[in-house]
Amino acid sequence: MTFLANVLPAHSNLRLELDRAYRMDEARAVEALARHAMVSDETRRRIEASAAALVQGVRKTRHAFGGLEAFLQEYGLSTKEGVALMCLAEALLRIPDPETADRLIEDKIGTADWDTHVGKGESLFVNASTWALMLTGRVVRPDAEDMKQPRGILNRLIRRLGEPVIRQAMIQAMRILGRQFVMGRTIEEALDRAEGPEAKGYRYSYDMLGEAARTHRDAERYLKAYESAIDAIGRRSAGRGVINGPGISIKLSALHPRYEATRRDECVPVLAERLKALALRAKSHGIGLTVDAEEADRLDLSLDIVERVYGDPALDGWEGFGLAIQAYQKRAYILIDWLAELVQRHQRRMMVRLVKGAYWDTEIKVAQERGLSGYPVFTRKASTDVSYLACARKLLDRQDLFYPQFATHNAHSLAYVRELAGDRRGYEFQRLHGMGEPLYDQIVGPDLPCRVYAPVGGHEDLLAYLVRRLLENGANTSFVNRLQDEEVPVEAIVEDPVAKVLALPVKPHPRIPLPVDLFQPERANSRGIDFSDPTALRPELDAMARATETEWVAGPMVGEARIGRPGREVFDPADRTRRIGTVIDATPEDADRALALAHKAARSWNEKGGPYRAAILDRVADLIESHRAELMAMTVREGGKTLPDALAEVREAADFCRYYAARARDSFNGPRLLPGPTGEENSLSLHGRGVFVCISPWNFPLAIFTGQVAAALVAGNAVIAKPAEQTPLIAARAVRLFHEAGVPLEVLHLLPGDGATIGGRLVADPRTAGVAFTGSTETARIINRTLAERSGPIVPLIAETGGQNAMIVDSTALPEQVVADVITSSFQSAGQRCSALRVMFVQD
């Protein structure tokens, strides 16, 4: 068995170096980049003076432009009103029924505090958007008294004109807002709109909106849209060539619904074929085609695809193939070396678009959630700026191989490139449509061109693009945001990021801990695997394959007794002909013996104290992680898990141990004195109850099993664990790890077997002091009734059972996001989660 190892590519030494850079220590990475980006003091002063002049020019002339930067300054995501406008702009035009539209407008407009924004901006666009009332192209102009109470005039207008009129006004306002972000609804409309700016020296790269294909039908539709767009751009280019004429930007995620590392063998050949077809089409028209950068975990896949396509002899004679590089990735600088080697191999210059990066918040959160060893991106904005400068310098030094395209709205970055380029030509700047005009109109011309990245598409495709733009430019640290703020000194805006970073005593951001330290000082985070990194994944898959060569055996673990009777065979649920091990089921006599031993051992175990037991659980967590490959292989083979679910299972089991260990140190650490208002002495101490029976399900055979056992043990109880009949092998391996970590044999027992026979006997026995159960509601009720019928103290039942979880989808929802959420909730873990989606209600 080889899992995915047989489809992982064999990488060159330079690609291996690129993979290592992904996990490079951030401090070392940024210090090295700072050395590459550093310039002399005299050059630095010229750069800062040039950047300062650009900033001052922007502040003098910005009100003559479209005002999108001013709008973002006024309505960033840090304001309630900015969020309200984003929700409206994204959802309003998608709503088919007037009633829902009216309610959305009332909800978003009626609850926001527009009073604080009216009249603050000098831009007509900002003030018009603030009122959001554009009737047949004319702004409703309030009188002076109305300016003090904008919500009041809105309410009066609704009463006077009626909700349908206001609704249409709002829809028109949102269309105008969307127009500031999107070049045109169709490629023809966008090409027409570009004619004026092109006369000034601007060029265009058109991006067909639509973030990702969810189905093969989606991918085919996006492919046809790209083909049509290439044909239209080619006709309009009229032989201007790949540099002087317009081009197109391509997202690989739009061309295949499973563009992900675990489907490498499926998606790479198909995407390479489709990208090649588009590249040949662009070549036939003599226009440029750039592959957009996406999430960090897709970079390795994209390079496999680019290497296949770029090296195809059918593209010889065409230098319009381009690739976007994200400077916020720690791999960016070395990626340029890899691309240089690729270009030298095929003797065909490549276009390279250098961007800062648009998914920073996502990359940080994903790395934390996955428990990676580090972040693929820099955690400080200044470090990204340093990386950008270092990469820019390298691209300028290799203009024999690359046609550099510097995409930035940062005046310092722009001035740095101009200074280092000197009199050299053969490069261009790039900006986003609707943004950066006051900056670039100061310099653009035939000798210093700027290409505009121009989104094209309908309003229904606007959400993901709109959110990225708001996230990029609405944050307080954004250059665009600070540029608009007159209170921020020009000197602060054009500060040299190299000097700033080198002066920092701690290079990574001190408030962004590494993923493994996310929960410190309380506990360590569980470690994950980056499935997109072949150098990290290959040894794990090889270890999993070796683990499956072992004959797995499970049986009752009752003290030191060894069971010699024959067992039954266990088969893989994904392949019922594949035998994976043997299990010996427990008997009623085994249950009686386990109860006797556990009951006797409970007192001494309780007396060990919380910190002692917590230390053992920490060792269990460490052992689980050190046996990760083996446990993942078992959950795949016995539990039917996918690889990502198997990894999540192991990580959750380790997290349970460390979480409960932290709780025990706090709560089971001796008596705690309580206030005594009348002079008496009150104290609170927590102790185990005796013997806990833990009955776990098959759908989380390691995580829930471990969580139940760990919680009961650390609270001072002896434990008898009864795993699901379908997954005893995993449970047996987990119990051995508990014993290896220091849990006495007589304190923790395992009884695999039939639920009614073994579980029923354990629950009914008077020595059982508590039950933890995860499973069906019906079984939980049986356990509850059995415990209730027992005489003596009330026996606690901690039960987690299934339910009917529903999702309500109305017309404001983005269909692509709905699909992703439904698939995740319904079908991860083969749909066998108690929280899995069971019913979805969709608005007519």
Output the strand order for the largest sheet.
3-4-5-6-7-8-9-10
Structural class: alpha/beta
Estimate what percentage of residues fall within beta strands: 5-15%
Beta-strand segment tally:
22
First-residue to last-residue Cα separation: 48 Å
Main beta sheet strand tally, sense and closure = 8 strands, parallel, barrel
Average pLDDT figure: 86
In DSSP terms (H or I, runs of 4 or more residues), the helix count works out at 34
Share in helix:
40-55%
Rounded Rg: 32 Å
Tell me, briefly, the overall form: elongated
Uncertain stretches? 122-151
3D structure, described in words:
- By secondary structure, this protein is α/β, with parallel strands linked by helices.
- The chain has 34 helices and 22 strands.
- An eight-stranded parallel β-barrel has the order 3-4-5-6-7-8-9-10, surrounded by five helices.
- Strand 5 (288-291), helix 15 and strand 6 (321-326) form a beta-alpha-beta unit.
- Helix 12 (216-237) runs parallel beside helix 14 (264-285).
- The protein starts with 12 loop residues before the first helix and ends with a strand.
